[in-house]
Design brief:
- This protein has nine helices and 14 strands.
- The strands form three sheets. A six-stranded mixed beta sheet has the order 1-2-3-4-5-6, with helices on one face. It has a six-stranded mixed beta sheet with strand order 7-8-9-10-13-14.
- The protein is of the alpha/beta class.
- Helices cover 34% and strands 26% of the residues.
- Bound molecules: zinc ion.
- Zinc ion binds next to loops.
């Protein structure tokens, strides 16, 4: 039986933070700012115990210190990012499990957007929290990592079970869909664009998406497909080269 809730908290312009509650205990992933988190915690009479950060960018850790000041909580993040994550107490890596009220948060290294980006896979919740590594129909910009690193990170996420929900750090879906349509104009993407429009006009997040849905429509997930490769190069190219071209096309879009 489901004993948890995953709550999407819109922050700043287009960020999403996630408050996960099990009973009255709660943790928050990537609090961009403190106010919307405090409002949600108070309104629902929860006890905020942990902050989990996927990476150090301000729009993911902006609420760390204010929340730590207000609540008796601990902050967890990649041990390699300990100098950049404000208030960090718990140093995570791929071999250690973070357990929250019997739910295991598995750390997956997903570098590319930054050198130390991590994702949290929670099998018991059929969910993965990807920060800015993977978006619905897109992936993060490469600020610190190489295309090869990012492609590897995407392959790790892609290898999770198809019915895994993906909770990412931003509402970028429409923008990514428009890019996708410019590359492969088909019925599936038109249908998706209509869906996104409907949700967004009612102020509903397009998140979560799923691994299955991204495999079908996310062009960055398909850098290993011959069909996609042929759109970017007449010559035979490998997956990494194809990924690099797709990323570059999006950067210049
Ligand atoms: Zn970021």
């Amino acid at each position: 039986m489901k004993d948890f809730n995953i709550n999407i908290i819109p922050c700043l312009n287009d960020n999403y933070s996630y408050v996960i509650s099990v009973g009255r205990d709660a943790l928050v992933i990537d609090p961009s700012e403190s106010k919307p988190i405090i409002n949600f915690i108070e309104k629902n009479n929860l006890e905020l115990k942990f902050i989990l950060n996927t990476h150090h960018h301000f729009d993911h850790v902006g609420g760390n210190l204010e929340l730590k000041d207000k609540y008796n909580l601990l902050i967890a993040g990649n041990e390699n990012d300990k100098k950049r994550i404000p208030g960090i107490d718990i140093f995570l890596n791929e071999t250690e499990k973070f357990v929250f009220n019997s739910h295991e948060f598995q750390v997956i290294n997903t570098p590319g957007h930054t050198s130390d980006c991590i994702s949290f896979y929670v099998k018991s919740m059929k969910s993965v929290f990807t920060g800015d590594a993977v978006f619905s129909l897109g992936c993060g910009r490469l600020f610190e990592g190489s295309p090869n690193e990012m492609w590897k990170s995407i392959c790790k996420i892609k290898s999770l079970p198809d019915d895994t929900n993906i909770f990412c750090g931003h509402e970028y879906t429409m923008n990514n869909a428009i890019f996708t349509k410019a590359i492969i104009d088909n019925e599936a993407i038109d249908l998706k664009i209509r869906e996104i429009k409907k949700l967004r006009s009612n102020n509903i997040p397009t998140i979560p998406t799923t691994i299955a849905a991204e495999k079908k429509l996310n062009i960055f997930f398909q850098a290993d497909s011959d069909e996609i490769k042929s759109l970017f190069s007449k010559e035979l190219i490998n997956d990494e080269e194809a990924f690099k071209m797709i990323r570059l096309a999006k950067d210049n879009f």
